[in-house]
Amino acid sequence: MGWQCAGLRWPDERGGPVLGWHKGPRTRGSALAYGTELGFRASGARTCVGARGNACPVAAPVPERSTGARCAECGRLDRAHSVAADTIPDDPRTYRVYLAWFGAGMVKVGITAEERGAARLREQGAVVFSWLGRGPLMAARRAEEVLRAALGVPDRIPYARKRAVRLDLPDPAERAAEVAELYGRAVALEGRGWPEALERLPCEAVDHAGIFGLSAMDPPGGAVRAVTGLLDGGAVAGRLVAAAGPDLHLDAGADGIVVVDTRLMTGWSLEAADEGAGVSVPTVVVGGEAVQSGLF
Fold first, then answer.
1. What is the pTM for the complete model shown?
2. Model confidence over 32-76: pLDDT tens digits?
3. In this predicted structure, what is the pLDDT of residue 86?
4. How many degrees, rounded to 5, is the angle at CA 220 between CA 168 and CA 119?
5. CA 82 → CA 24, 62, 85, 87, 295, distances in Å?
6. Burial class (CB in 10 A: 0-12, 13-18, 19+), 200
7. Strand intervals (E) in 158-266
């Protein structure tokens, strides 16, 4: 088995995106630079990536549109020790509660292990975020539930919606002001359900537009399209102009701006594609069918 794509990583808040690769338990990364050419071609069939460093015992096929790239059995194994799935309530680590802003009127609340820093926010494609508090896992989880109910903000947002609003961002001051306003409403809940074990953290709106390359990305002249799935022999090639969360934004010349969710690349055997190969995989206009159907 050759090296398989493991999706986009954001290991350093001062650095750029890194495309991850794995081969069994071995991992490596390829740093990406905006303005450079990037192209790949899928070959063979897409197979399950396994779970927790273990290969799928049957190399089960997975659907081209799946962003998980795991069969049902490996998916269960992966969730068996997951904070998101509430399977480790006795986790002794310190957790942080955050507000993540993706676009005008689109904010969510969530938690992440303190040791991870803001990596989780970059992985989700949060354009701006602020910490709210820190403390034990169950206190952080309780605060997340209280905030979600009291403020009317979700803990999950379909990725197609994040991608669509990212193309038309207000200026940095407006972004920071929206986060600060919601932060003020959140801390006003202290004494009304805010867990005593959770230490409140000051408001500091951290803007990721620069590290994502969104600040320098020219407004698209035509429709932006998103890849909906790869196929055997299908290619995607272009100049990398931005990246956010799991997404790569490529200027594909005559094909315009094409967004590739790198989670769709996992499980495929990938080969380099020549510059100018264009896009020969299914796509959909960003903000149209993808938003309505909940793709990505």
1. 0.90
2. 999 999 999 999 999 998 888 788 999 999 999 999 899 999 999
3. 56
4. 55
5. 21, 22, 5, 6, 23
6. middle
7. 199-200, 206-207, 225-227, 235-244, 247-251, 257-261
Instruction: Using alpha carbons, list the distances in angstroms from residue 122 to 64, 110, 118, 160.
Output: 25, 13, 7, 16
Q: What is the CA radius of gyration of the chain?
A: 20
Is residue 78 within a helix (H) or strand (E), and if so which, with residue range? helix 72-79
**Spatial contact of 198 and 97, defined as CB atoms under 8 Å apart:** yes
User: If we measure between CA atoms, which residue out of 81, 75, 83 comes closest to residue 110?
Assistant: 83
Nearest Cα neighbor of 1 from 32, 22, 28, 30 is 22
Q: Give the pLDDT confidence score for residue 26 in this predicted structure.
A: 80
Tokens for 71?
A: 């069969």
Give the model's confidence band at 290: pLDDT under 50 very low, under 70 low, under 90 confident, else very high.
very low
Answer whether 187's CB lies under 8 Å from 132's CB.
yes
| Residue tagged 């190969």 (tokens) | 277
Give the pair of three-digit tokens for residue 150: 């009291």
For the record, the structure tokens of 74 come out as 């490996």
Tell me which DSSP letter residue 232 carries.
T
User: Which two structure tokens, joined as six digits, stand for 9?
Assistant: 């990583």
For 205, residues 6+ apart whose C-beta sits below 8 A from its C-beta are 128, 129, 130, 175, 176, 179, 180
Residue type, 111: I
Which amino acid type is present at position 75?
A: G
Q: How far is residue 106's CA from residue 21's CA, in Å, rounded to a whole number?
A: 32
Collapsing DSSP to helix, strand or coil, 160 comes out as helix
- Spatial strand order of the sheet with 4-9 comes to 4-9, 18-23, 26-31
Q: For residue 294, what is the DSSP state? A: T
